Amino acid sequence: MPSAYTAVAVGLAAGVLSGMFGVGGGVVTTPAIRLLFDAPALIAVGTPLPIIIPTAAVGAIAYVRRGLADVRAGATIGAAGAVFSVAGAFLSEIAGGSLVMYATAALILYMAVDLARHAMSRGSTADGAAAEGSSGSDVPKPPWIHLAGLGVVTGLYSGFLGLGGGFIVVPLLVRWLRYPMKRAIGTSLVAIALLAVPGTVAHWTLGHVDAALAGWLTLGVVPGALIGAKLTALAREIHVEIGFAVLLVVTGAVLALNEAGVFL
């Protein structure tokens, strides 16, 4: 079995991704736990969840300090999503089958293309300096009902798939609610810190969490989240959008390959 150093390295990679793009990091940790540590599928799905909470919290704090997070919006999305993530978990038991997984992979790939086109259409005007100034009055302030609706969708998908909700929250904040990319990422981390709580409790109660492995992974993800947040703060807005689109492509491919039996 790989060493604790490997677990810390995996956690570091997941933390950097989380801090950079406002996601939970499960796209790294779940396959790694399965492939590198030869863990059962349920352990691979459940163990990343308690790690998401400190990772998202640390990343969110870093974005809030830079004025790149909408705490009100993130809290509303996270609270609504936390309730419906439980419903999503129950639906996964009822639905089963491959169709939903492949459809979700296709949806994520569509969002990747849409986000990349959005980034390229804006071109060089979306630079880092503009993003840093985006915390003022030009930032959208959507009604709470829109945010709650986004939380419902995110929670259902998060509970159903066992993934962090950032893959849904960030694109919808950018394309539907017109948030600047960096602010969408910071807001997503606030939401994810809340979203992960019910899933963590459920999987811990069911015995799907390897506490020792989670501890080693946490040693990597916390500094990784700080590094990722710093990298995004320094990057140009268009580069962050394109990078997130690439991450969506990888995630969609991982979901499809996982359902085909390549990973789990």
Task: Work out the number of β strands.
Answer: 0
The proportion of strand residues reads: under 5%
Low-confidence stretches: 124-137
Helix fraction by DSSP (H/I, runs of at least 4): over 70%
SS-based class: mainly alpha
Radius of gyration: 17 Å
Order of helices and strands: HHHHHHHHHHHH
**Could you tell me how far the N terminus lies from the C terminus, measured between alpha carbons in angstroms?**
18 Å
What does this structure look like?
The structure is a single chain. The chain has 264 residues and is mostly helical. It has one domain (4-259). It has helices at residues 4-21, 26-36, 41-46, 48-65, 71-95, 99-122, 128-132, 144-161, 166-175, 181-205, 211-234, 237-259. It is globular and about 45 Å long.
Short characterization:
By secondary structure, the chain is an all-alpha fold. The protein has twelve helices and no strands. It has one domain (4-259).
Question: What's the layout of helices and strands?
Answer:
Blueprint: H1 4-21, H2 26-36, H3 41-46, H4 48-65, H5 71-95, H6 99-122, H7 128-132, H8 144-161, H9 166-175, H10 181-205, H11 211-234, H12 237-259
Task: Provide key terms for this protein.
globular; mainly alpha; 264 residues; 0% strand; 12 helices
